[in-house]
Amino acid sequence: MSPRPRRRVLHTADLHIGTAGDDGCRSLAAVTALAAVSRVDLLVIAGDLFDHNKVEAGLVGAVAAELRRLPVPVVILPGNHDCLAPGSVYEHRAFRDGQGSMFLMHEPAGGWLHLPELDISLWGRPFDSHDGDVRPLAGLPLAPPDGRWHVALGHGYFVDGGGPVLFPSYHISRRDIERPGWDYLALGHVPVFRCVSREPVPAYYCGSPPLTGTVALVELDDGGVRVSRGTLLMR
Description:
Elements: E1 7-12, H1 23-38, E2 42-46, H2 57-68, E3 74-77, E4 102-104, E5 111-115, E6 120-124, E7 149-155, E8 157-159, E9 171-173, H3 174-177, E10 184-188, E11 193-197, E12 203-206, H4 209-212, E13 214-220, E14 226-231
Parallel strand pairs: 1-2, 2-3, 3-4, 6-7, 7-10, 8-9, 10-12
Antiparallel strand pairs: 1-13, 5-6, 11-12, 13-14
């Protein structure tokens, strides 16, 4: 099989945009600015772009417009704060299918999104309710040997089984992430920059931009996947 093309991904999560001009809005501007200067091929948002589903429609449209200004695809996973419940912010017309290169992961049981122009396939399970216990990466399928990069998005707590569990739900287990064929797991919900696995699959939390001022910059290369901490310039 021929080498896959090198790709650069900016991974962010937990911006928690709630009102115009808040820290989440400033963080979004910093994220899109870094994506532009870093010349990434793809931006992924692993949950909680918005802080809740009551965000004013004008701000929802402005956020979508900011993301669409990027010349690269943007993939969004709804989290527990901005879940796909009735009245979700993602029912706004700006997030409907066909809006350029912005894509919403919308299948509650988990589903694929293929970006053939980048040779990247993504999988994610969005939250569709404020109730219940979503297991974000349970049932993550095997990644097929199709010559593409494979990136999964998960929003929840990583639980490695090595100690007491502090949170009762939204668990991501080590068994969940040890699935053959995957190249990177983009995690959200925990507001720190943290590597939870390097082998067999790199899995990282990117941090929450309003709190940590960080994102993850991911270099997909057949010689080895490299992940670095990106620092945002906040204004």
